[in-house]
Amino acid sequence: MTIGEIARRARVSRSTVSYALSGKRPVSEATRLRIQRVIDEMGYQPNASARALARGETRTLGLVFPPASTHYTDMQLDFIGGLVDAAAVRDYDVLMSPGGAEDRTFHRLIGERRVDGAILMEIRLQDARVDRMRATGFPFVTIGRTAQPDGTSWVDLDHGRLVQHCVQHLAQLGHRRLALVNRSEELIRAGYESARRGQDGFERALAEHELTGRSYQCGDDAASGEACVERILSDDPGVTGIVTLNEAALGGLYRGLGTAGREIPRDMSVTGIVGSRWAEAVTPALTAADVPSREMGRIAIDLLLERIGPSAAPLRHRLLTPPISLRASTGPAAP
Amino acid sequence: MTIGEIARRARVSRSTVSYALSGKRPVSEATRLRIQRVIDEMGYQPNASARALARGETRTLGLVFPPASTHYTDMQLDFIGGLVDAAAVRDYDVLMSPGGAEDRTFHRLIGERRVDGAILMEIRLQDARVDRMRATGFPFVTIGRTAQPDGTSWVDLDHGRLVQHCVQHLAQLGHRRLALVNRSEELIRAGYESARRGQDGFERALAEHELTGRSYQCGDDAASGEACVERILSDDPGVTGIVTLNEAALGGLYRGLGTAGREIPRDMSVTGIVGSRWAEAVTPALTAADVPSREMGRIAIDLLLERIGPSAAPLRHRLLTPPISLRASTGPAAP
DNA sequence: TTGAAAGCGGTACCAC
DNA sequence: GTGGTACCGCTTTCAA
Lengths: 335, 335
Hints:
- Chains A, B: InterPro entries: HTH_LacI (IPR000843), LacI/GalR-like_sensor (IPR046335), Lambda_DNA-bd_dom_sf (IPR010982), Peripla_BP_I (IPR028082).
- Chains A, B: This is LacI family transcriptional regulator.
- Chains A, B: Keywords: DNA-binding, Transcription, Transcription regulation.
- The structure is a homodimer.
- Chain A has three domains: 3-55, lambda repressor-like DNA-binding domains (434 Repressor (Amino-terminal Domain)); 60-157 and 292-320, 3-Layer(aba) Sandwich (Rossmann fold); 159-291, 3-Layer(aba) Sandwich (Rossmann fold).
- In chain A, 46% of the residues lie in helices and 16% in strands.
- Chain A has helices spanning 3-10, 14-22, 29-42, 48-55, 74-89, 104-111, 128-136, 159-172, 185-189, 193-209, 222-235, 250-259, 276-281, 293-308, and strands spanning 60-65, 93-98, 117-120, 140-143, 153-157, 177-181, 212-216, 241-244, 269-274, 287-290, 317-320, 324-325.
- The longest helix of chain A has 17 residues, at 193-209.
- At the A-B interface, helix 4, helix 5, strand 2, helix 6 and helix 12 of A face helix 4, helix 5, strand 2, helix 6 and helix 12 of B.
- Strand 2 of chain A pairs antiparallel with strand 2 of chain B, so a sheet runs across the interface.
């Protein structure tokens, strides 16, 4: 079923059908109705590829994220959900593209103009994908910000400040010896921004509150979390407060503490930056800064559409600092 | 940068450039090299929309899933990850489309021919989307199967059998009074197939082993899990075994049991069908049939590409029955 | 108010 | 081995 077919049956030209559909030119009520009848009868819908070619826009947005070496985290996945839903509301589809800057699929997305704009996840402080995108002038938004965040649109959590808040919370409860459970060594070495900025925030906060503490790298799974607790306690059995950036290791962290005979929050306070689903799944429920993943997805879409549209983009970025939700995993330090 | 531009610079016709790229017609080594040089210089990549229009295929697959009323479960999201990765390996992109049969985005995907084929998630026993797809003759694969599974391609977990295995496992440990923690009331009422077939399997298994038991509907979150435990124990304090289909409520289930003073597995054995990430996150780790979400994604892609390609599709469906991974949450019933 | 026709950027058939 | 050209299906300018 093509527009030509519709035109023939409605005894008008193809252009008239097109205009009847788009409304970009007045069409007499009589012919409009006649055309609409035929369209409904035939169940016609314009071909997206043809339209994209003619209009020069695809009404599709790209989501670029690194291939999952192991698993995606809940945060990432909720974020994707929020993003896709938000795009759908605005009549955009989302094309998923695993792959880094050198990747085939990345080339496909941008180079072949499969999408009108892109969202980049899992940003590193130095990020080749961002550099490439800037060079091409292609509209894009990042989740997370590079070391030079000006000149790009982004939405990000203020991991530095959030970790500081967590430390502050523990400090106010009287804890003096802390540990930070960060993401995996590879991610940190790769310059993964949330891990790096979280770590910086931890160190700053320790200095500020005159506390002692140490950072640990930890894989994104329960077993790593368990192992991490062992390291923490063997390095310094006097630790009474843990801040975690590692959602997927949380269950293991709890188990490790249980195995070591440390009860939460009596013997050990735990807090961190974690999606609410995980925070509420563990017992005792985790006092944490809840990651507003879905909202971040929505914001990313808004920022991107701003840059795609004809209007100048007034707001370029959003730095979020969600409050700490008090649950049950932190308590006063033993005197 | 268009193919015409490349042709001009390489002093050949557009068709020659096209053939040099596709290899569908021999091109002399000399001109091939000349063309390639220009292409590399200019960084040319063919426009996807134009190519899709000319070839009549988009090299894009659609993923249709209901909009997240609340959250996606881990299973769903891991599944998406596996699917996207598998598609990328085969040089396909994946277009995400939240929305049911009546939805705008569903129309867009199929009607506008944005994709060459589609994968439908969250299948119901009677599913309007499946009916529509079959009517259009559009290639598609479902995750989960309808009440009449013949004539469609699908990949599914054998929830009925898996629940039976879980019950059997508990029966062998001497448990006589069981409870099934299913998904939410809405989902079950909507005819959500895994929930329905799981429930059927539970009832069959109870009869087979001459056990008593009861099914519970439970929302996809920790709080619902906690509430569900209360209901179970107030209905029958003698229950010593729980089978759960509800991944997202698992943490709450554990907490509820803890609150009720039931220790796992001493006072209560728990098992079910759950992704390994969740199974390993809880303490004690859950003995469960691990949902192979990522692999299911891969299989779905394979099945779909089979149906899209020119070759006849030999295999139409895959019913998976992963083994129960023994962990730490089940034990013998008290004598 | 409507129609004809020239694009959009490729592909592939028909010639030579 | 290569060039010319008619498509693919839709949008939009130009003309009537």
